[in-house]
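Subject: complex prediction, re-run

Hi both,

The earlier run crashed halfway through, so I resubmitted it with identical inputs.
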Amino acid sequence: MKKEIRIKLKNRAIAMAQEPEQKRAASAAIGVILFTLAAETYGIESAFVREVYPLRDFTALPGVPPYIFGIINVRGQILPVVDLKKFFNLPEKGLGDLNRVIILYNDQMEFGILADVVNGTKDIEPEDIVTVPATVTGIGEEYLKGVTKERLIVLNAARLLSDKNIVVNDVVT
Amino acid sequence: MFKNLKISLRLGLSFSFILVFMIVIILVSLNQIKVSRTMFDRIIKTNNVRLQLANNMIDHTREVSINLRNILLLKDSENTLELKNRIDSIRNLYDADIKKLEGLIINDDTMSFAIVAKIKDSHDVSRQLNNKVIDLAMAGKHEEAILLMNQQASKKVAVWITEIDELITHNEDRISMLYLEAEKAQDAARLFMFILGTVAIALAIMISIFLTQSITRPLKISVQTANEIASKDLTGDLTVYEKRGDEFGIMIQSFSKMIENLREQIQRILDGVNVLASSSSEIFASTTQIASGSAETAAAISETTTTVEEVRQAAQLSSQKAKSLSDSAQHVAQVSQSGQKAVNETIDGMNRIREQMEIIAQTVVRLSEQSQSIGGIIASVTDIADQSNLLAVNAAIEAARAGDQGKGFAVVAQEIRNLAEQSKQSTMQVRNILNDVQKATNAAVLATEQGNKAVEAGVKQSVQAGEAIRILTDSSAEAAQVSTQIVASSQQQLVGMDQIGIAMQSINQAGMETSASMTQAEDSAKNLHELGQKLKELVEQFKM
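This time it finished cleanly. Structure:
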């Protein structure tokens, strides 16, 4: 018992003695927000993230494509929310938590995407990101920035924000 | 038809029938004899006499002729007178004869009458001629007389005699005719009698056969039936013959009735004998059982006698034991009183335990409520940690947006996020522990409830035990009292057992006697049974 505790303490000491990775980080590093969606971890550039907001109340909209989840009220501002699973036609793998909304923005567009869990932030070197064929992830190539060695799928936030498909311009007849 | 006639009447009828036949035969034969007799009478008394008379008449005539010749021949007047007288007397005789003859002719004989009339004429003529001859002779004129006589008188006399001869012949004819008639009549009578006799004999034979038949047949049946009855066969059925109206019918009816009565009686006897046989066999079985039973009883009684002796000794022992029982019963009464006290104390103790248990239960319930409020607190802490985490993420985003100036803030945000994570994990642990605590308190609640129940049951049982011990106390007091009575009773019992011993001796003797008489009864029943069987065999010989 004491031996185990000792080993544990030793491991912890080794872990504490590690130098932080930041030192290695150059100015080219990209900050990403990590989030989980349908048991898969995705990353999205934090430069395009306005904030993370808990999904409490939302309003479903009639007459819209199925990937438009609804609209939410963020401190008086009404924002649409997109369900990426439906948007990317990803297979449904059981029910997720879906209790977070990551609000993306740029100077033209602002909307939220649904996430199960937001895991935090991470800095990634651009050379670590490898582009892969679209068939590997099931997501269109244009929406991906690439995949890291840790199998982190980094989404292209700028492309998403400028995508014409998300803009709904149907007339209900 | 004859069957219904009485035998006497039948016999009478038959004999009178035969008698009538005999009378008819006798009468007929008598009549025939009479007829024959009259016929023979006529032949003998009339015709023969007539024949005689006619012959006489011929003789007289010849005599007259002879005398006449003598007159003529002698020529003597004296002699002539004498001869004339003689002729007159002969003539008288002749007249008498012819008168007689006339009287004897039967009216139907016309021929005789005619012949007699002719004779009369002839003799009248002849007599006149002869008288003339005589007168001539008397007058002495013999030649004239002879001449007259030769020429006329002799011829006339010859005619006359011929006529008489004719009469005789006629008479003889009649005789033979009558004789033939008589013979014929006799033959007819004989034939008639022969036929009548034959018929009578045939009828008599038939009647006798019929009579014998009519008497012997029913007699045979009766004899046969009697033989059957004699040989114990009562199956005969005589109802067919009962319809006869005669004595045999009556006899057969009585036979039939007798058989019926016999059958009935034998049936009754058979029934009775059957009952007797079964009863006697039952009696036999019963007496056998009784005999063996009485033997067993005798044995049992002697056993009982010895047993009674043993019981007497046992009673003595029990008297002693009863005395010691009385002592111990009093001891038990004391002990049970102290036991009652102890049980009362137990009940008090149980009541105290119940109160304590109730307090424990309340405490546990409170504990459970408090652990639930701890759960609520944990939930809010978890929520706070979550929000802190989110805030840290947002802070990190803000720090990233601030660029290099925000780097320090990013570290702080990371630390906050770590803290939030840690606090979340801690609350998770607390929640697990709290879950365990809640499970434990639930188990405790259950345990205290069971404990409560057990205590209540204990209280109830101790109350029951108290009640039981109270009853025991009462009972032991009663037992003490009763055992005193038992001591007295067992003393009396001892005395009683002595008396029973004496009584058992006499019962033993009586039992032996009963056993002996039962053996005799068994023998008698056996004899009765055999008698019944024999009787049954006897009666069963009758066929019915």
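Helices of chain B lie at 7-74, 77-104, 110-138, 142-230, 247-402, 407-540.

- K.
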